[in-house]
Amino acid sequence: MLLISWQLSTAFLTNAGGNNFRILARFASSPGTDYYVTVRVKGPSGYWLSTLGEGPEVALGETIIQDLGAVRLPPWLIHETNLAPVDLCIYGRRAGGGTLDLDFVQVTPLDGYRLLKPRGYYNTAYNTANVDDGISGTLWNEDAAGQNKSGQYIGVGQPIQLWPGRTQRLYFLVTNDGGGAEILRTHSIRVWYRPRRLTL
User: Fold this and answer.
1) Cα gap 136→80, rounded to integer Å
2) Among 64, 88, 90, 105, which is least packed, fewest CB within 10 Å?
């Protein structure tokens, strides 16, 4: 059944440019493990005569932040302008019914996608850092002094790469112990890059 929908405007679809986007959702409470959701792109907006694009059916887990899969936006007419608006819809099913308390959805561009996943329940402690070195292929935690390194995380996905000569935008979504994501919790991000050069 339909859970919620949003209109994707002509301007949004033009800017999206036919790229893949990962749909990330934050729930107000843990949804449990027996809910299944699917993201669909339907049109025309408000009438839904056709399903124009669809992601995989995803089984939700216990954490507050959930990955609902990826869809291409727009799903058709990639290099055209003046596109008709469509609707991004989230459908769900659960034996016996139930309730999901959705807080927000983040539509995340997928030029690159990297997930830092803790090996156990332990997450990054206050005033410590995660270092994800895509150049050397190493990932570790360290304290505020840059000491006491440990390998508490697993990197899922390829290292993030930048496009030369283009404006770059990086998006971050962070959860804490138990999968929460308090709105007042802040993080500092520092990014370095090294240009790749062709050598013969």
Assistant:
1) 40
2) 105
Q: Are 45 and 84 in contact (CB under 8 A)?
A: yes
Any idea where the domains of the chain sit in the sequence?
A: 1-110, 112-200
The rounded distance, in Å, linking the Cα atoms of 168 and 144 is 28
pLDDT tens figures, 73-99: 999 888 888 999 999 999 999 998 888
Do 67 and 107 meet the contact criterion of CB atoms below 8 Å apart?
Answer: no
The model's pLDDT over 149-198, given as tens digits with 9 standing for 90+, comes to: 888 899 998 888 888 888 888 888 887 655 555 667 778 888 888 887 77
| pTM of structure | 0.80
| Topology of the domain covering 1-110 | Jelly Rolls (2.60.120)
191-to-121, 131, 145, 161, 168 alpha-carbon distances in Å: 26, 10, 18, 11, 12
